[in-house]
Write a structure and sequence with these properties.
This protein is α/β, with parallel strands linked by helices. It folds into 2 domains: 4-52; 64-210, Hexapeptide repeat proteins (UDP N-Acetylglucosamine Acyltransferase, domain 1, 3 Solenoid), CATH 2.160.10. The protein has 4 helices and 21 strands. Strands 3-6-9-14-17-19-20-21 form an 8-stranded mixed sheet. Strands 4-7-10-15-18 form a 5-stranded parallel sheet, with no helix packed on it.
């Protein structure tokens, strides 16, 4: 019979204490567990593909993004993926889309306006410990609020740093590191982000004009 052993270690004042939790798992038990998991994943994936034309990790297929947003008291029709990390109590408007693998840090204050889209991998920080670290604890945590306006698009893996304001209808390019404010209707790319264009028009007539 095959056996599996799980070891958990933790520190205490008396030193490192090792706790051995031994659970005998024969091959048949492991196979049953795997079969149960695969059946549930197959069912969840089939529903997800049929309804949304996508296949996601199991935790995403079991949860409801809109119910999670409602539980966080975000605005109506807003959705947030299960694997989005939310710290503090951000104020999030209506119809906002918050993608997977995102970080919303509201410990220093965070507002996100109606209709904004936060793409996958975006990290929004309203606090930083950089000064506390280099000052050897002599300076405290820096906290500055972040404000993101209405109908703002934040591209994949962009980083928004403490104290930044993004104006309504602005666009932040993928991978940008935003260290300063971006005005309404401006397009900003790069590291650090700089304005490279502007959103013109409204509704179906919207176009993006890039600087020469």
């Amino acid at each position: 019979m095959a056996k599996s052993f799980y070891c958990y270690k933790y520190s205490s004042l008396g030193g490192v204490v090792e706790v051995m939790v031994r659970k005998r798992l024969d091959a048949r038990t492991v196979d049953r567990m795997r079969s149960t998991f695969e059946r549930r994943r197959a069912i969840a994936s089939e529903v997800m593909i049929r309804k949304w034309d996508r296949c996601l990790p199991l935790d995403e297929t079991l949860g409801d993004r809109w119910k999670k947003a409602a539980a966080l008291k975000f605005g109506e029709r807003t959705s947030v993926y299960e694997n989005s990390y939310v710290y503090g109590k951000p104020t999030v408007g209506k119809g906002v889309w918050i993608g997977p693998y995102t970080i919303l840090d509201a410990t220093g204050g965070l507002e996100i306006g109606d209709g904004t889209e936060i793409s996958c991998g975006v990290m929004i920080f309203s606090h930083s410990t950089h000064l506390r670290t280099v000052s050897e604890g002599q300076i405290g945590v820096v906290r500055k609020p972040v404000k993101i306006g209405r109908h703002v698009y934040v591209g994949s893996s962009a980083v928004i740093l403490p104290g930044v304001t993004l104006g309504d209808h602005s666009i932040i390019g993928a991978g940008a590191v935003v260290t300063s404010n971006v005005d309404e209707g401006k397009v900003a790319f790069g590291v650090p982000a700089r304005v490279v264009g502007q959103v013109k028009g409204n509704g179906a007539s919207v176009v993006i004009e890039y600087a020469d």
